[in-house]
# Entry
Amino acid sequence: MSAVANDIQKLREELRDRGATVRSPELAPAERVARVKEVFARRLDANMATYLETCLHCGMCAEVCHFYEATGEGKYTPIYKVEPLRRFYRRELAPMGWLRKLVMRDITPADLDEWQKLVYDACTQCGRCDMICPMGIHISPMIGVMREAIAEAGLQPAENKALAREVLEKGTLMGIGPADYRRVAAELAAQGIDVPLDKPKASVVMLMSAMDAMLFKSAIAATAKIMNRLGLDWTIRTNAGDAAMFDWTSGDERAKAAAIRKVVAETIAAGAKTLIVPECGHGFAALRWDGANVVGAELPFEVMAISEFVGREIEAGRLKVKPLPAGKSVTYHDPCKVGRWSGVFEEPRNALKAIGVEIREMESHAKTNYCCGGGGGVVLNERANKLRAGAFHIKMREADATGAGSVVTACGHCRMTFIAGAQHANWQKPIESLVELVAANLA
Amino acid sequence: MTLLEFARGPGMQWALVIFLVGVVWRLVGSFLIARRRDLSKPKGTAYVKAGARSMIMRSIPPHELEKNIQFQHLTGYAWHLGFFATLLLFGPHVPFFQQFLGFGWPTLPNVVVLVIGGFTLAILIALVIRRIIHPVMRQISTLDDWIAVSLVIIPLVTGFLSYAHVGVFGARYETMLALHILSIEALLVWFPFSKLMHLFYTFPSRYKIGVSMERRGVKA
# Structure
C-alpha cells in the first residue's frame, strides 16, 4: 500500500510541475472578472436562481462539511464558496438588481484569487451539504459553475491546468493513452485474462482508467474476469479515451466536452447498448449526467457504473458468486459521484451480501456518507494536502467506529485517497475494491 | 394627522402596496429566468412525489446530519412558531386582520401570548449573539441579515412596550402604539428586498432539489 501512496505523491508532484509550465494567456485582472461573469451568465438557470434567492445564511451547510468540521474556519462554509456566483446573480440577473448595485459591490480580481482556493482545495463537490440545507439549496452543481468560471479566468491550480491541457492537446490522461491500454491488455493476456480491444462491434463498451492502468491493474483484471464470466460481447475501444475524467473536476469545459465526445462517439460506433464505467466516480458521473448534454442529444446507450452493473447481474442471477467463509466484515464507502450523485447505493451492497461478507455501516453512509476528502480532483492537488488529511480523519473515525475489518469502495479516486490518507495517518485498515472482491469469489 | 393615524392609515396602505408589488416582482422575475433542458436519462421520474417529499422531509433531516445543527434547528422552529403565534393569536391583533379580511378567529389569553413573545424575543437575541460570535455566521452574514433580524425584533419590543404602556423617552401610549405599527410596516417594506422572501422561496426550492435528486435516484 505504501508503494501506491508514494506513486500518488509522485503523480501530484509531476502534475504540479507540469502545470507550472502550462502557459495560460496573460489576462488583465478586469478580463479575468469579465470571463468569470460570462460563465456565470451562461450557466445560471431557473433552479440556481431559486436556490440563490432562498439562502438564509443559517450556516447549517457548514456543520456537515468535512472541511469546515476539520478546521472550524468559517470560510469553508459550503454556501460561502459560491458567494461570487450569488453576488453576480443578485447584482446582474436578479429582479431588483439595479437597486442592489447601489449597495452591493462587484466581484473583484482579489475575490477570484480567494475563491479559487475555496472551490478547488476545499470542496470535493461531494454534495453532503445538499442533503442538509433546510431551504433545499443544491450547492454542489453551483460549485461546478464556480470551477468552470475560475478555469475560464485561467486561475485553476497547476495540477488541473496540466490535466486539462493534456486532454485537449494529446488526448491522454496523466501520460496514459491507447498504447498503454494495449500494453495492459497484453500483460493481462499473458496471465490468461482476455481483454478484447477495439472490436468493431460489441454490445457492451467498457472504459479503461489511467489510475487503474498505473496503480490498480488488479481492478482491470477483475473487471475483465467478470465480463468474460458473463459471456458478454464486450470491448474496450482504445480511442475512446480515459474513464478517469479528471477534466470533469478541472472546471475546463472544453477538456471535459472533448473527453466525453470521444467516449460517446466510440460507443455509438461500436453499436453498443451499454457503456460501463470502471471504478471511477467522476468518469461515471460525467458520462451519466453530462454525456447527453455535452453532445446535445439523448444517448442511444445506457451508462452504468461497474458497481451498479455487477450488483444488478448478481441480483438477476446471471453472475454467480461463492460466499466467503463466515467472519469477514467490511464497511462500504459510497463514492460520492456514484452514490449521492447517481443513486447507486443498493447494488454494491447487494454484491457484498452475495459473497457473504458482513456489512457494518458507518454512521454516515449512503446518501449522508462522508467523502473520503479527495474527490473533485482534491486528491491530486498538492496544495490541499493538509485540508485533505483533516477531512480524511473524519472518514477514518467513522470507519474505525464500525469495527469492520476493511473498507470496500468502488472508485479508484477514493481508493487513492484512502491509501494516501492511510499512509499519512499510519492507519492500518485494508482498503479493498468491490469489483476485485467480487471477481475473487466468482462461482 | 397624528403619528398613530398615519401608521394606521396611509402608512399601512403604502407598506402593503410595496410588500405586494415587491413580492410579485421578485418572484416573477426570478421564476422567469431560463430553464435548462436536461437530456440525460433520469433514474427516477416520480417528480411530483419526490418534490412533495422534499418539501416535508427537509424539515426532518437524518440524525447523522441533524446532530450537528440541533441548536439552530430547534431555535429556528421555536422562534418562527412564537413569532406567528404572537402575530396571529394575540387578542389585540385580531381586530386589525378582521378589518381587512372581514372575519376573526379565537385568540390565546394575553398572558400566554406575552410569555410566548418573551420567549421568542429571547431566542432571537440569542441567535443575534450567535451570529456575532460563531465563525460561520460571522463569515456569511450580510447587511441584510442584520437588518432583517432587527426588523423582526423591533415589533416584538415595541409590542411589549405598548402593551405594558411603557413610554420610551416619555412617549405616550399612542406614540408607542404608532411605533409598533410602523415597525411592522418597516418589516413589510423591507420584506421583498431581503432574505425574508424565503417565506415564498423555501418550498419551491425544496421542491426543485427533490426533483433534481429524483432524476439521480436519490431521496433527498
About this structure: Chain B has a mean pLDDT of 94. Chain B touches chain A through 64 residues (CB under 8 Å). Chain B has ten helices and no strands. Residues 47 and 211 of chain B are 5 Å apart (CA to CA).
